[in-house]
Structures are given as C-alpha cells and as structure tokens.
Write a structure and sequence with these properties.
The protein contains 2 helices and 21 strands. It is mainly beta and about 290 residues long. Bound molecules: beta-D-mannopyranose. Beta-D-mannopyranose binds next to β6. The site of beta-D-mannopyranose (BMA) has 9 residues, from β6.
C-alpha cells in the first residue's frame, strides 16, 4: 500500500514577499476541527531561522495563509529556531510540540492555543540531551499524558515513550521501537501524532536509510498500553519519487508531521525535500487493512 499524492502538490511553496517564509516551507502539523483543516508549518527565511506559520482550508488542499508567523523564537532554548510542529487537540485545547533549537542543541518545545494565532509557551523539564520528533497522544491513556520522542544518544536512534501528569515533568522514558535495517536502518522518528483507530494507535513515522533518504512508515500500538508495538508494516507507505521530494533544500526527503481523519479518509501532510508542503491521502479502510 502507498499513500496517494494530491495531484496539485505542492500545496504550499516558499513565499518570496514574506521574508520569514521566503526560503523553505515544510514539515506541517494539521488539525481538523469544526469543518476546517488548520495547518501549522515550519517556515525558513533567508536568515536560516525557522518560525511557524498558519494556514487554513475547507477542503484540505487549498489553503489561505496568514501573513505573519504565529510562533517565533522567544525562549532561551530556541534562538536558532522553532522547527517541525506537531499538534493535537487535548481536553479542548490545541497543544503543539516542536523542536527548539539553540547553540546547545535541540530540545522539545511545547505551546498551547485555542485559536491558532495566539500561543502560550511552556518550559518543559527534560534532561540535557538532544531530543526531537516529539508527538503527544491526543488523549490521556490510563490517566497519564503520553508522548513519543527521539533522544539522540549515540547510535541509539529509535522512538521512545514518556509519561506525565502535567505535560511539564516527564518520566518512564524508554525505547519502544528501534530502527531495523533497510529503508529504516539508520534512524526512525515519530511523524504525525498517533491516530486512534479500532485496531490501536496508528503511528505514521519516518525512517532514514544509510544514504540519508527519508521515507514514511506505518505502525500500530496497543490502545491501552501505547508502549506496546503490535505491528509494523514492513514497506514504506511513501518514498521520495516526485521532483518536489527529490530536489529542494535537502534532497530525497518526505517528512510527515501531521495527519487527520475526515470522512473515513486519512490526510497525511508532509514536507517535500525540506522545501515545500504536500499532502497525500488514503482510505481509512485500506490503511487499517495493513494491520
Ligand atoms: C531532520 C529534521 C527535519 C528534516 C529532516 C530532513 O533531522 O531536521 O526537519 O525534515 O531532518 O532534512
């Protein structure tokens, strides 16, 4: 099974007239809420700093863009950029995890909003180690908030879990899914926040091979124990093939960071070659047929 690309891809390109998003727009988060697709995307200007932009759509393909970034570096851990947003609706509030970048490395950033334009920011407590690809589960499991992340500890580059009572302090950190070779042999990381299905938590993630090619994979985790990997589909569900995935800022990259379910169809939003925003879809039934 492969995701089907929208024939009008890319759906967002860099906008030369807005300096902050004039170089690259990529790696988007999505939330479908009250009939609208809300997209939060990573944008890079000529200064090389990532900020987060906002766009909204009624059909998931044609987006209206807001002219100013909605998140710009503000906290001590992010002067070099706010990257790779992922958004969930959790207890009625939208929470964003993102990669906070400074001279000390990368850390997990957290923000919240009820309107997508005005964001509150939090300093989450985490060990002094590089960490990225954080996604929150869209609901508490067994009374705890749950998050997937990817600490960068030497050669270990798998997907880890963490639990929390307050979204600020996290515990129970451990690896739950490791790279296994081939297309996902070098490292893997969570892509979109997990989607709840009747078969478990569906995770769309990325795998990187020894040549640095980024592909998308799909895995299923237990609903009542999200640390338990039930099944991992062995083949990539999307790989760089189109010109906008092969040529860009970083060649041969498809990097999904948002997915939503609308009318029994999954819409997967991804960055093409760290340059443009794209979307691909699949019927829910076909996707769940993999597991
Ligand atoms: C990762 C992140 C992503 C990027 C990917 C491919 O480490 O920086 O934002 O899309 O590399 O370059």
């Amino acid at each position: 099974m492969k995701l089907r690309r929208y024939e009008g891809n890319p759906i967002l390109k860099p906008k030369p007239e807005n300096e902050w998003e004039s170089k690259n727009v990529f790696n988007p988060a999505v939330i479908y809420d009250h009939g609208l697709f809300h997209l939060l995307y990573r944008a890079m200007g000529v200064d090389g700093i990532s900020r987060i932009g906002y766009a909204v759509s009624i059909d998931g393909f044609n987006f209206f863009r807001f002219d100013k970034p909605v998140i710009v570096p503000k906290l001590i851990q992010e002067p070099r950029g706010c990257e790779d947003p992922r958004v969930v609706k959790l207890e009625g509030v939208f929470f964003m995890t993102y990669t906070a970048y400074s001279e000390r490395g990368v850390r997990i950033g957290l923000g919240s909003t009820t309107n997508f334009i005005q964001w509150e920011r939090y300093e989450i407590e985490w060990e002094e180690t590089n960490n990225k690809d954080a996604v929150l589960f869209p609901e508490k499991v067994d009374g705890k908030y749950v998050l997937l992340h990817r600490p960068m500890l030497g050669e270990l580059m798998g997907i880890w879990i963490a639990y929390s009572d307050n979204l600020i302090e996290w515990h129970g950190l451990r690896e739950i899914m490791a790279p296994v070779g081939g297309w996902e042999g070098k490292k893997i990381g969570a892509g979109a926040p997990p989607l709840k299905t009747e078969k478990g938590w569906l995770l769309i993630y990325h795998g990187v091979d020894e040549g640095g090619v980024y592909r998308l994979g799909a895995a299923m985790f237990s609903l009542n124990d999200p640390s338990k990997l039930l099944y991992r589909y062995p083949e990539p569900i999307l790989e760089p093939e189109m010109y906008y995935e092969i040529r860009g800022e970083i060649p041969r990259v498809v990097f999904a960071s948002g997915a939503c379910e609308v009318m029994n169809r999954y819409y997967v939003y991804y960055g093409g070659a760290d340059k443009v925003v794209c979307v691909a879809t699949v019927d829910k039934e076909e996707m769940l047929g993999l597991f």
